[in-house]
Design a protein that fits this description.
Elements: H1 18-46, H2 54-72, H3 91-111
Keywords: Membrane, Transmembrane, Transmembrane helix
Organism: Actinoplanes palleronii
Protein name: Secreted protein
Length: about 120
C-alpha cells in the first residue's frame, strides 16, 4: 500500500505576498505615527506658557452687555411666554439663586472685575 503525500492546505504560492504586504503596512503606520507626534510637539511648543486674562475679561464683558440688553428689553407684550407662567415663586429656589448670585459677585470682586 503506497501512501502519497497530498497537500490539503491549498496552493501555498498564492499567499506569498501577505507577509511582505503586512510588514509594509505596519512600517507605513509607524512612520505616520512618528510624523503626527512630531507635528503635535511643534504645535504644543508654539503655545504660550500662560494665556492672558484679557480674553476672559472680554468674554465676561460681552456676557454682561448681553444680559443688560435682555434686562432693558424686559418690557414684553402681555401675550408673551412670560404672561402664561405662574406667579407663585418657590422660596427655596429663590434662595438658591440668590446664593449663586452672591458667589458670582464675590468671585468677580476677587478677580478685580465687576460681576453680575
Amino acid at each position: 500500500m503506497d501512501i502519497i503525500a497530498v497537500n490539503n492546505f491549498g496552493d501555498t504560492r498564492d499567499g506569498g505576498l501577505a507577509g511582505p504586504m503586512g510588514l509594509f503596512l505596519i512600517v507605513l503606520m509607524c512612520i505616520g505615527t512618528v510624523l503626527l507626534i512630531r507635528n503635535m510637539n511643534k504645535r504644543i511648543r508654539r503655545l504660550p506658557d500662560s494665556f492672558d486674562a484679557g480674553a476672559e475679561r472680554e468674554r465676561v464683558a460681552e456676557i454682561a452687555r448681553l444680559n443688560a440688553d435682555l434686562e432693558r428689553s424686559g418690557d414684553e407684550p402681555a401675550d408673551s411666554v412670560e404672561a402664561g407662567r405662574s406667579t407663585k415663586v418657590d422660596e427655596s429656589a429663590e434662595a438658591e439663586v440668590g446664593a449663586v448670585s452672591d458667589e458670582k459677585r464675590e468671585s468677580a470682586s476677587d478677580n478685580g472685575t465687576t460681576g453680575r
